[in-house]
Amino acid sequence: MIATTDASPSPAEQARLAEQSRVAEPAGPESAPSEDGRTRAEGSKAGPSEAGRTENGHTETGQPDAARSAAPTSARSTGASEADIPTGPILPVPYVLSFSTGERIVVVGAGLLGRRPFAQPNERFDQLVSIADHERSVSKTHLEFGVEDGQLWVCDRYSANGTVIIPPAGGPHRCEPGRRYRVPRGGRVEIGDHWFDVR
């Protein structure tokens, strides 16, 4: 007969086996390792990109996290006024010739003046001004006039009775034929028995 022994473990053996087979409980959040092997305590502070961010995507200052572009400036914010805005070039005041006959003309370019002025074939003028003179003291083409650098000038065209300039201050000056002379505003030009004021 083969002798047999009782295979059931003793109480002490059962306690030892239970201790070996016990599964270790998972570590708490304070000691749980992260993927890179470093531990992270529960409730630790978030990174710089999360700090101060609220649920609506704004930081604690109340401004969006995206880069803020500068607000466009206006004339009011920069201190400029409507007076600083250029309005274009200022046009010069045209000259007006007021004649002893009561007529008035506005100078719009180069011109000829006389009883019946006419240009030579190679000449071009903007104005031909006729003066009524029954005594014929004014030549047919008595003088030439124009504006240069904003100033009026006259040139005697070898008239019979000549051209005299009387400035606002000073004595009369007889013009040399074929030469230009400037006439200021307020001056007078005598042509034969007639004259005209420059305004």
Please give a quick description of this structure.
The chain has 199 residues and is mainly β.
Structural class: mainly beta
Low-confidence stretches: 1-5, 37-55, 57-80
- How helix-rich are the residues, as a percent range? under 10%
- Beta content: 15-25%
- The number of helices is 1
Q: Major beta sheet, specifics?
A: 6 strands, antiparallel
Q: What strand order characterises the main sheet?
A: 2-1-11-10-7-8
Shape: rod-shaped
Mean pLDDT: 76
Give an overview of the whole structure:
By secondary structure, this protein is mostly beta strands. It has a domain at 96-198: Sandwich (Tumour Suppressor Smad4). The chain contains 1 helix and 11 strands. It has one helix at 11-21; strands spanning 96-99, 104-106, 111-114, 127-130, 143-148, 151-156, 163-166, 173-174, 180-182, 188-191, 194-198. It has a 6-stranded antiparallel sheet, with no helix packed on it. Strand 5 and strand 6 (151-156) form a beta hairpin. It is rod-shaped. The N and C termini lie far apart (158 Å). The model is unreliable at 1-5, 37-55 and 57-80 (pLDDT under 50).
